[in-house]
Amino acid sequence: MLDPHPSLPEFDYIKPKTLAEASQFLADHAGEARPLLGGTDIFVRMRDGFWKDQYLVDVKGLDGTNEISFDPAKGLTIGAGVSMNRVSAHPDVKVHYAVLAEAVDSVASYQLRSRATIVGNICNASPAGDTIGACILLGGVLNVHGLDGKRQEPLSTFFKGPGSTVLKAGDVVVSIELPLPPKGLQGTYLKLGRNKSSDLSIVGVTAIGYPDADTVSGYRVKVALASVAPTPLVVDKVEEIMAAKPITEDVIAEAAEAAFETASPIDDVRGGAKYRKLMSRNLSKKALTVVWEKLGR
To answer: Exposure winner among 146, 198, 207, 226, fewest CB in 10 A?
Structure first.
């Protein structure tokens, strides 16, 4: 019988002084230790009995994890411990990465976003992660510290399945880097939930577009879907269709149909697979239209 009033189980709180110390502890206690950032997912899952970690290793405040910076030549770096509210309020994010700020502001409530982090959202590896699509389409790369030192992991190959990534025991994600966006980039994030706020997405669509003289249409347009596949899903066919001919309402409809055909959702408590698949087409069409209008049609 489920406990109607579950509480957090006992655990040990570990506060390492260095990234090397954190990586070593996580590796030595593989399967029973987990890195702690905002804790907005960890504590819920531990309370509900899904995760039974004995140790939570607080990596906030370690080298680079609590910093956010923008370089006009290189782009944006967001530390793993930087809260979502800090990201969306950052002036350079508002100017150069507005689609990311829009996605961030769709996550749960303002109060939760004061704790939640973008890196935590990514490492949670939920197919419903609201900020993941923007980070993938913007070319995000994770800076990871492991037992063998530092390395980078591009988001395009980071996800293996629901809750599963390429991270290994001892790995700590320090930050995410987003390169400088192409000139003229526009984007939007549309989210369908059971209510207007505080809910995971039934379907989420991130769309971006920017001028590209090498395409027939004169634009490069990309779409990523949330909650319609085992991992966050970039629909490559959309980019092909939107680049191959002058953009019209019919071309947008064709691209939205490609999103529909690519989506492979499941039934769950938030929505049925058939409904999700249909809405992946409808929301993709709406998102592509929004981006096309922002680009000036």
So the answer is: 198
